[in-house]
Specification:
heterodimer, A: mainly alpha, 13 helices, 2 strands, B: MetI-like fold, 76% helix
């Protein structure tokens, strides 16, 4: 006992040292480039000025300014409108496809999955180039030709303030569709087969099985996609930069777009930080509310 | 009854098939457009097979723009990201999974909490820091901060937790040393997890847009996404023929990786989605 005691301590100490040794490079970078910047962002949101002019502490002025800034409010409304369109539409359409291909032979399932994945491995930039061309407002543009078949007159998809957000919504749903479908397929996979068999033995029809078994058991999947869908889509930037640059007349400006413009074009670092912090809080509050009030438990 | 079942199955396959084709149509259009001369891309009616197929777009793209250079730049940056992040994340994940030390839970929670912090929140302070240390217009901001990849650590910890402790103890008894245990025992066992993480990091880095947009000024340093956006939007005002060709070439590396490592890729992409 007496002999082993001094032996244990150094061994433990060595373990601590090794663990921290393995963690040090990571922790140093983490503190420098994530933790401190986040705190600094909060501080910057209380300052005015920019890179060249230097910053000056002004308290909550920026927050009042943001509240009274019609462009920021507009960007916030655009972002919310965009998200409220994308999330339900993507959820409904991807669930439909997942239900359809869930019972297919693995070969066909893989063919469809590959088709869905191609947009997922491409960058927003390259996909935007394709879609910018598809949206060409000319009456012979690809999309206008397509809708022309159904007798719809040619539209200025990205130039009409009422159409620009729905057009970007279409693009983003197409781009992210594969991910939504896979998550639903994984959720469907997790539902035990004997539940279906038991229901069939009891004489349930397809509609009953869908509404009483499949959909209720997918609740955790719905919640996950809802929360993630809000988090990503509230940060829409790349597609706006590529497709519309916020136009026409700020009709498609999103919050991150406006933050970017203020920080790197207008030299308003403090104000940009304020809007960034506000968006972060909005996302956080929405996430907490969703997690708290939307049931994920299966009853 | 049987015919009914068969018919409904056929209809489902047809609907899904049509949907999948519709999804692929924009990509098909990109491929054919890249081989069309500019006037044909814009002409009436939309042609689905190039009438005057040409390689001029690729030739112009590669000789008259910085595109080829950008492909090399992006490859170098992505490889640096993969090597550094995979190494440091697996090392830190190993520490979190297999060592007991004071502060372990606190640190891990802190790391996990930052997974949800959006990029644009840290971007402004980081931009100021990069300016002070003279890293603006270099690749360093695209590589160094990314090493602190919270998601990579989480993923590696989960994976390494499944490595049996007996194997590690056996290696230590054989005198492997702590780093030797990591390098010779842990790394070979977690290879599939490393490959998935590497693919995820590569595609994130390759497709990243906001960071290069903010940090890079010199065209010789541009990443492929930045050059593409530049060719398309800024420099030549919607130059569809070069842009389509560049979109193909820029997607090619990801397409090849996807075709060869489809299974790992799917888990990697799902991983990416979780990170957001």
């Amino acid at each position: 006992m007496v002999a082993s005691q001094p032996c244990i301590l150094p061994r433990r100490a060595r373990q601590y040292l090794t663990a921290y040794g393995f963690l040090t490079p990571y922790l140093a970078l983490y503190i420098t480039f994530i933790l401190l910047p986040v705190l600094w962002s909060f501080y910057l949101s209380l300052c005015k000025g920019g890179l060249l002019s230097g910053t000056e502490f002004v308290g909550f002025q920026n927050y009042i300014k943001a509240w009274n800034n019609s462009l920021f409010i507009r960007a916030l409304q655009n972002t919310a409108y965009y998200t409220l369109l994308v999330v339900p539409l993507a959820m409904f359409s991807s669930l439909t496809l997942a239900l359809l291909i869930d019972k297919m032979a693995p070969f066909w399932q893989n063919v469809v999955k590959s088709a869905l994945f191609l947009p997922m491995v491409s960058s927003v930039v390259s996909l935007s180039i394709i879609w910018k061309a598809i949206f060409i407002p000319d009456r012979n543009g690809p999309l206008n030709t397509l809708v022309g078949v159904f007798g719809i007159p040619p539209q200025n998809w990205l130039g009409n303030p009422d159409l620009v957000i729905p057009s970007i919504v279409g693009f983003e749903i197409w781009r992210g569709y594969g991910f939504w479908v896979i998550v639903f397929l994984a959720g469907l996979d997790a539902i035990p087969n004997d539940l279906y068999e038991a229901a069939r033995v009891d004489g349930a029809n397809a509609w009953h099985i869908l509404t009483r078994i499949t959909l209720p058991l997918l609740r955790p999947t719905f919640l996950f996609l809802l929360v993630m869908g809000f988090i990503w889509n509230f940060q829409l930037f790349d597609a706006v930069y590529m497709l519309t640059a916020g136009g026409p007349a700020n009709a498609s400006a999103t919050v991150v777009w406006y933050v970017y413009r203020n920080a790197f074009h207008f030299e308003n670092l403090g104000f940009a930080a304020t809007m960034g912090v506000l968006l972060l809080f909005i996302i956080l509050i929405l996430t907490v509310l969703q997690l708290k009030y939307i049931p994920s438990e299966v009853d | 009854m049987r015919y009914q079942m068969l018919a409904s199955k056929l209809i489902i396959h047809l609907i899904v098939g049509a949907g999948a084709l519709l999804m692929l149509l924009p990509l098909y259009w990109m491929v054919v457009s890249a081989f069309k001369p500019l006037p044909e891309i814009m002409t009436v009616p939309v042609t689905f097979i190039p009438v005057n197929a040409t390689l001029e777009n690729f030739k112009g793209l590669l000789t008259e723009t910085f595109f080829a250079r950008s492909m090399l730049n992006s490859t170098a940056i992505a490889l640096a990201n993969v090597v550094l992040q995979v190494f440091f994340c697996s090392l830190a994940g190993f520490a979190f999974a297999k060592y007991r030390f004071p502060g372990r839970e606190v640190l891990f929670t802190l790391v996990l909490g930052t997974v949800m912090i959006p990029q644009y929140v840290t971007l402004i302070p980081n931009y100021i820091v990069m300016g002070r240390i003279g890293w603006l217009d270099t690749w360093a901001p695209l590589i160094i901060p990314g090493i602190a990849n919270a998601f990579g650590i989480f993923w590696m910890r989960q994976y390494i937790a499944t490595v049996p402790d007996e194997l590690l103890d056996a290696a230590r008894i054989d005198g492997a040393g702590e780093f030797g245990t990591y390098w010779r025992i842990v790394v070979p066992i977690i290879k599939p997890g490393l490959v998935t993480l590497a693919l995820f990091i590569f595609s994130t880095s390759w497709n990243e847009f906001l960071l290069p947009l903010v940090y890079l000024r010199s065209k010789e340093l541009y990443t492929v996404q930045l050059t593409m956006a530049n060719i398309f939007r800024v420099q030549y005002k919607f130059n569809y023929h070069w842009a389509m060709a560049s979109a193909i070439l820029a997607t090619l590396p990801m397409g090849i990786l996807f075709a060869t490592l489809q299974k790992q890729f799917i888990s990697g992409l799902t991983l990416g989605g979780l990170k957001g």
